[in-house]
Design brief:
The protein is mainly α and about 80 residues long. The chain has 4 helices and no strands.
Length: about 80
């Protein structure tokens, strides 16, 4: 096997290990928090979906809802601080 092939194999294995570790750390959290943390860690919606056994669409919708809730919370806080 070429050096490039060996590097790809090692990187792939490290990726698998990272995924297993991520799942272990997130095991006891609610689904919404798992998705948010995995997204923050740089996982794509497709990768998160594979890790959690759900659809990528479900992940995208959840991420959208999380962003909307944060925007709403930020707007409420801004209104309160103006008073």
């Amino acid at each position: 096997m070429t050096e490039k092939g060996e590097q790809d194999k090692v990187l792939s294995r490290l990726d698998q290990i990272a995924r297993v570790l991520a799942l272990g750390l997130l095991r006891d959290l609610p689904s919404k928090q798992r998705i948010e943390l995995l997204s923050t860690a740089g996982f794509t919606p497709s990768e998160i979906a594979r890790l959690l056994g759900i659809t990528a669409t479900n992940v995208r919708v959840t991420m959208y809802n999380i962003r909307q809730a944060k925007l709403k919370k930020k707007a409420i806080h801004a209104r309160r601080s103006r008073r």
